Amino acid sequence: MSALKTLWHRLGSPRWFFEISAPWATGLLVVGLLGIAVGLGWGLAIAPPDYLQGDSFRIMYLHVPAAILSESCYMLMGAAGVVLLVWRMKLADMVIAAAAPIGAAFCSIALVTGAIWGRPTWGTWWVWDARTTSVLVLLFLYFGVIALRQAMPREETAGRACAILAIVGVIDIPIIKYSVDWWLTLHQPSTFKLTAAPSMPPEMYLPLLVSVLGFYAFFVGVLLLGVGNEVLRREHRTQWVNDLVRSRAS
Amino acid sequence: MNAIAFVRRPSSSRAFVAQLQRDLLIAFRSRADFVNPLMFYVMGIALFPLGVGPGPERLALIAPGVLWVLALLSTLLSLDALFRRDFDDGTLEQMVLNVDPLFVGVLAKVGAHWLVTGLPLALLSPIAALMLFLPGGAVGTLVLTLLIGTPILSLLGAVGAALTVSLKRGGLLLTLIVLPLYVPILILGAGAVTAAIDGLDPSAQLAWLAAILALMLTLTPFAAALALRVGLE
Amino acid sequence: MSFESWHDFLYMGGHYAFVWSAYGIGVVGIAFILLRPLNARRRFFAEQAQRLRRQAGAESGEYDASRTA
């Protein structure tokens, strides 16, 4: 327990975080990219084709992890928002700042791949299915956080404002998902779902798992990179950063 | 026992009523803020027959969605003024400093806002429904969904307005922030009216709307109060 | 292996346009997510090194015409 407390206190120092996170970032990025490559390759080449959709279902190995990550990223932003508002930990602010563009990017990947997947499956480019619709609304939520941060002149104010917005968004996400699900059962009597995860045979399910785990590792690695950049930017006038710059330049 | 204990502290409910009265008075004095969103609602609804064609079948089909989307947009239009006037003349800071707990003052402002925009909108909606040939049996449901839904719109919008109050051109950003949060309300509200048209029972959607209202009533005043404090730093 | 040959693999049962465009966009997206912070860090160090050099130059009394701040 006290080890956790020490860790918590240490996190209050951006410099400590930077020094600790650098090797972790590299490691996670390598593991993540490897996992993604293996998962996608497995899904593309080895997994059997789907009974109904044929080979186009392989887009799932890209679309599903991107969508899952975009949602997890927002949850993380909400949690970081709580940490920022309650404990005033500057690192939490940096996490929100670094995570927002990453999450928006995952969201966009999920949306585009979802649309491409929908074309051979449903015959139209844009498909209002439960996943793509709630991911679209999630993208709008991301835009709101990014725009709010850019619009506020003072950094500390911007951080806390974005924290509030992220928290409100996280509370709203389950409501959005429920209402979109309900809205879809009303408008699309078809029970065919694009992501029938539990009912997939393991030959299809396992590469998806590997892909998702790879994406998670990749995400944390990139996030650590981004937070590290924020630390550097905010502390660029301190001695330790100057020393670091000099040692890199030589 | 110190002397301060003998001073009668103003109660929260009196602060609430005072703030509510003040905002309602101001709203009635500046008719434009009051009437403009309603005019926008009616005019916006009238655009649809002009754009889509006057045929009653097609209009009745899109009526639930259009009536609700326009209610959303009218509310959005009126939200910027929620805190901005007080921010501009300094009374917002006074409220933040003096009203304790702040969420009481926020709740009063949101209440005044709803009484002046959401409630008239809900009461005006049968006329708008007439323009779109909404079947008579569904009008009651429409009014009910608006009565429950527009307070939610005001509450959620207040958080957005509080976050952007100090920004010069915060109006568009406010829309960007608040619209995704409005999506479930739209889906449930329009869905209830559609169900009523089809002869189905809309009580599931209405119950969900009421539950969301209860949730937002308890949570959003705190979020908005915090956002006001952050924005006024 | 789910495919008989390379050709079958690339053909993706007729859905090659969809699968490969989606994967192409996905790879580009992942690359973007990865390269953005890497680039930002590299730029940061370059800019800061330049700033420190200018400062050191100014402190040693050199006139630096390029200094704007």
- Beta strand % of chain B: under 5%
Largest sheet of chain C: none
Radius of gyration of chain B: 19 Å
Query: What is the residue-averaged pLDDT of chain B?
Result: 89
- The proportion of residues forming helix of chain C, as a percent range, comes to over 70%
Share of β-strand residues of chain C: under 5%
* Structural category of chain B: mainly alpha
Q: Please state the average pLDDT score of chain C.
A: 85
Q: What is the structural class of chain C?
A: mainly alpha
- Record field, number of beta strands of chain C: 0
The portion of residues assigned to helices of chain B is: over 70%
The tally of beta strands of chain B, per DSSP, is 0
Cα radius of gyration of chain C in angstroms = 25 Å
The coarse overall form of chain C would be rod-shaped
Q: Biggest interface, which chains?
A: A-C, 46 and 30 residues
N-to-C span of chain C: 63 Å
Short description:
The complex is a heterotrimer of chains A (250), B (233) and C (69). Chain B is mostly helical. Helix content of chain B is 85%, strand content 0%.
Structure, described:
The complex is a heterotrimer of chains A (250), B (233) and C (69). In chain A, helix 4 (90-122) runs antiparallel to helix 5 and helix 4 packs parallel to helix 6. Chain A is built from eight helices and no strands. In chain A, 81% of the residues lie in helices and 0% in strands. In chain B, 85% of the residues lie in helices and 0% in strands. Chain B contains eight helices and no strands. Chain B has helices at 12-29, 31-52, 56-89, 91-98, 102-131, 136-164, 170-197, 203-231. In chain B, helix 3 packs antiparallel against helix 5, helix 6 packs antiparallel against helix 7 and helix 6 packs parallel to helix 8 (203-231). Chain C has 69 residues and is mainly α. Chain C has a domain at 14-58. Chain C has helices spanning 6-11, 16-59. The longest helix of chain C has 44 residues, at 16-59. The termini of chain C are far apart. In chain C, 16% of the residues are buried. The model of chain C has no long low-confidence stretch (mean pLDDT 85). Chains in contact: A-B, A-C. The interface between A and C is large, with 46 and 30 residues.
